[in-house]
Amino acid sequence: MKQFFKYLLASLTALFLFCIIVFFIFGALLGSAFQKEVATVKSNSVLKIEFSQPLDERTDNNPFKNLNLASLKPSNQPGLNDITKCLENAAADANIKGVLLNLNYLEGGYASIRELRNALIEFKKSKKYVIAYSEGYSTKAYYLASVADKVYLHPQGAVDFRGLFTQLVFFKGALEKLEIEPEIIRHGKFKSAIEPFILDKMSPENREQTSTYVNAIWETLCSEIAESRNISRADLENIADSLTAENANDALKLRLVDQLTYQDELDKIIATRNGDEKDKINFVSLVKYKDVPAPKSDKKFTQDRIAVIYATGEIVSGKGERGQMGSDNIAAAIKKSTRRQQSEGYCITCKFSRWKCTCFRCNLERNQISQRGKTIYSKYGRCCCFRWILHQLPGRHHCRTTQHHYRFHWCVWSADECTKTADQ
Questions:
Q1: Cβ within 8 Å of residue 227, ≥6 positions away
Q2: Distance between CA 224 and CA 219 in Å, rounded?
């Protein structure tokens, strides 16, 4: 028996020491993986913008969200706030010669894509080039690419430029077969969220408001693409209706793209633009460039400030988790901003996925904002009902984007335009 306990104790001791050693080794590996290197940019560099994840309003700083287990390094994609800041810095960076848009994948709201497009327009004012390349452009990708000086396409690629549509699913028939009768509390004919449970087709009011916002988005896309590519609206409408650009050669003939080229040929084109005879290009990714110190700026700072509050995700009660808009957190952020004497107003960027009746907690802060005489500038990226609370505030300015889902006040603004309005 003594011999048994002797070996048991030795085994447990060895296992304990092994766990400690593995813990420290794993901790060292994680520490080295998350340690930020001092980012530098070589001369004749090109800022490469490509997407592997949907475009979010702002960067998610959670290092474990997109951890690559093979390299033990996070692969977080910068959000819209960091991308626009990178473009602003790159315009003043002498080491950055231009921007390459690699648009093999692009997913996000039209409002966010339009804001990124406007940032590229501002970047081009620095007399630096913007080049777009893809193996196949979606409608969203081509809308962004159209702002580039040159649009390149893979010889076997296509431009999937088509009109917009919306699709609804109705449950009334299924509920009747299951003998389920929904109890609906509804105010107003344009409140269409409950229609799938009580109708088997779109109501005239819902069709009207849906057609309004879809046509508003399409109007913005076509007008801006037509201006950038010097193509008439009639030609764009015909391309979308007939799908005549789904062949690379046809897309070239229709002037949707400037040249058909392979990736290695594109590298030579960029090297020639940079004046590099060795065809060697220094590409800088967004992940790396966002850690590069900003160049010195001649901008003058003022004591007047605009508080920007990001309200992103599903509205839930309490504080909520990451990716959710907790009513307590938003209320606390508004309350904290009103206490700052230097805050002239607020530009609230709202992007909602769903609505629940928990926004009444935020409604409690309305009187405090009103009493302090602040002005709210709000920008909506998606459909939301939080607008009804802000709408009752004095001195409000609602900056709606191309994805605002209401039938009235159709004003297509992006967040940068909303901020300029606040500055005025």
A1: none
A2: 8
Do 260 and 394 belong to one domain?
A: no
What backbone phi and psi angles, to 5 degrees, belong to 344? -75, -35
**270, 100 in Cβ contact below 8 A?**
yes
Strands (DSSP E) found in 107-186: 129-134, 150-153
Shared domain check, 255 and 223: no
Helix (H, G, I), strand (E, B) or coil at 264: helix
Chain centroid to Cα 122, Å, comes to: 18
**CATH at residue 311:** 3.90.226.10
Query: In whole angstroms, what is the distance from residue 303 CA to residue 271 CA?
Result: 44
Give the separation between CA 226 and CA 203, rounded to whole angstroms.
34
Q: CB neighbours of 168 closer than 8 A, spacing ≥ 6?
A: 195, 196, 202
Residue 299: predicted pLDDT: 67
User: What is the C-alpha separation between 292 and 92, in angstroms, rounded?
Assistant: 13
Residue whose token pair is 């304990």: 16
Q: What is the mean pLDDT of the chain?
A: 76
Q: Which domain holds residue 170?
A: 163-227
- In this prediction, residue 125 carries a pLDDT of 93
Give the CA angle between residues 260, 263, 264 to the nearest 5°: 110
Tell the residue number behind the tokens 């992007």, with chain if given: 351
Tokens standing for 314?
A: 């599903």
Contact 304, 265 (CB under 8 A): no
pLDDT higher than 50, residue 264: yes
* Residue 134 · residue 105 · CB < 8 Å: no
Query: Following CA atoms 260, 134, 116, 330 in sequence, which dihedral angle do they give, to the nearest 10 degrees?
Result: 170
